[in-house]
Amino acid sequence: MPTELQRRIDALRDIRTFAQVSVYLRDELGWPLEGADLEDESLDDLTYDWDPAELGVPADKLRDVVRLQQMRPLTADQPWGVFLVQFEGPRLPITQLRRLLHALVTRQRRVGNGTRPSWALDDLLFIVFTGSDPAVEMHFVAFFDDGNRLPKVRSLAWRPAQSPHPHLTRLAEELMPSLVWPTETNDADQWRRDWRGAFKLMPGQAIGDAARLADRMARTASDLRDQIEAVLAREQAHEPTQQQGRPPTNLTNDPTSRPARSPP
Questions:
Q1: Which end of the chain is less enclosed by CB atoms within 10 A, N or C?
Q2: Residue 35 and residue 57 in contact, taking contact as beta carbons nearer than 8 Å
Q3: Is 80 helix (H, G, I), strand (E, B) or coil?
Q4: How would residue 134 be classed by pLDDT, with cut points 50, 70 and 90?
Q5: What is the C-alpha separation between 264 and 251, in angstroms, rounded?
């Protein structure tokens, strides 16, 4: 029977769509989505669509945006704007995401007879998909203003089908739990501190670190195999090839002993 931690890791591995993300938010992080139809990938009763043209950004500046939705506020006093964004292509386009941020933070937009308000930079959360199965990448993204010209980007990112177990363990055990829905939603400052506390990694950092680790492990295994083969060759050159009771020397004929480099 899987442990509780393994169950939470498996929940991260199961995500491939925005509907599945929503199920994860409800079941694992306690977001109040019980009334929403999470079987419908369009999420029509949970979100409303945005046309990038509403943001006042030229279409060619957001050319990779395939889907852009805002999650409807789940409580009356919710400070956060939560956006679902799908980009075409395998990687997170930081420049285009910054353009979305700039438009959302600095503008007031008309919607019918009312306005769609802008948000403080600290109150925006982007849930982003890039790529496609089996190499789909999932990103929870927040921005941080450190006084420089461009806000810093921090993300929780993983490849559900490919990310290594240690990275998913850290996500499931340490980082994602910070995004649990608060029991007291009227304390907006604490809510911000809690959610923003999850964002400790730069975009691609964990994925890149995992790729480098996998490559290093593969090269180490290959070097070790070569050293063993060299030692065995020297031994065989100085000893009879047939010795009664000698253990077999083909210890490196395991096809898995030279692991291929794999994506994180």
A1: N
A2: no
A3: coil
A4: confident
A5: 28
Tokens of 5: 């931690």
Structure-token pair, residue 206: 């964990």
Neighbours of 102 (CB within 10 A): 17
Determine the Cα–Cα distance for residues 149 and 86; give it in Å rounded to an integer: 26
Cα–Cα distance list, 106 to 61, 150, 219, 241 (Å): 17, 14, 49, 79
What is the Cβ-side half-sphere exposure of residue 12, based on CA atoms within 13 angstroms?
29
pLDDT score for 239 = 60
Tokens standing for 255? 């096809």
- Tell me the pLDDT band of 106, cut-offs 50, 70 and 90: low
H helices then E strands: how many in the chain? 6, 8
**b/e map of 65-76 (b: 16 or more CB within 10 Å)?**
bebbbbbeebee
Q: How many residues would you count in the chain?
A: 264
* Residues of the chain above pLDDT 90, percent: 61
Q: Which two tokens stand for residue 48?
A: 């409303």
